[in-house]
Amino acid sequence: MPEITQSMHQLAEPLWQESFNHPFIKELAAGNLPTDTFRYYLKQDRYYLQNFGDLHKQIADHISSPKIKEFLYAGAEGLHDDEADVRKTFFQELAITPAEIEATPIAPNAYSYVSHMYHELHEGSPARAAAALLPCYWLYNEIGKKLIKNGSPVKIYQQFIDTYDSDGFTDATNEMIKIVDELGAAANSDEQKGMKTAFVRSSWFELHFWGMAYEHQQWA
Ligand SMILES: Cc1ncc(C[n+]2csc(CCO)c2C)c(N)n1
């Protein structure tokens, strides 16, 4: 039997290709992504990261394997990489003030993505929720590895790319892949199907996160 993450990767491949080719990513690499669009992305991603951390904690609470618990609690504390620190620097460099953050509500696609992850945990299972978290690590790591080859002429975009290509981040991604494989191996076929669906849906939300930022999506 191939590992469950191999078939997840295959199922999500068309969505991932669309992410690799999304104008947000192309322009980030070329250096002509409008600063306003990157600012929009960062303000929305802040909601995502906050919920992502909380979700790690909640999933860890429901999982019995001490090894998996430890990884997820560390993820909740942001120990895997300096993503949170890098973001603080970005906010300063782009003069995103607390007042501006306060005045920015979560946008439709960020809201749906986060809701999907809580749904997988509370109406599904810890294994489905872990599968829903995986594209976040894995897709960003693949994007980092692709973009690092040419980099970006814009310093802040280069810093963004560096975060996701770092050794620490690659290690965390591989660890998360292993965790999902372990949970998949212990699951029955219905549960495995649910895990794959959760993974593909998160891949869809990842793709549309770029679109949301590119179009500065609003509720009204
Ligand atoms: C929409 C969205 N998806 C994925 C990431 C990347 N990311 C968020 S948390 C985390 C794990 C460890 O920090 C990673 C890789 C992002 N920033 N925003």
UniProtKB/TrEMBL annotation:
UniProt name for this protein: Aminopyrimidine aminohydrolase
This molecule's function is given as: Catalyzes an amino-pyrimidine hydrolysis reaction at the C5' of the pyrimidine moiety of thiamine compounds, a reaction that is part of a thiamine salvage pathway.
Q: What is its EC number?
A: 3.5.99.2
GO BP? thiamine biosynthetic process; thiamine diphosphate biosynthetic process
What family is this? Belongs to the TenA family.
Q: Do you know which Pfam families this protein is assigned to?
A: TENA_THI-4
Task: List the signal peptide residues.
Answer: none
User: Which biological pathway?
Assistant: Cofactor biosynthesis; thiamine diphosphate biosynthesis
| Key words of the record | Hydrolase, Thiamine biosynthesis
- Gene3D superfamilies named in the record: Heme oxygenase-like (1.20.910.10)
Q: How does it assemble?
A: Homotetramer.
Q: Which reaction does it catalyse?
A: 4-amino-5-aminomethyl-2-methylpyrimidine + H2O = 4-amino-5-hydroxymethyl-2-methylpyrimidine + NH4(+); thiamine + H2O = 5-(2-hydroxyethyl)-4-methylthiazole + 4-amino-5-hydroxymethyl-2-methylpyrimidine + H(+)
Q: What Gene Ontology molecular function terms does this protein carry?
A: thiaminase activity
Q: Where is the Thiaminase-2/PQQC domain?
A: 10-215
Q: Which domain of life is it from?
A: Bacteria
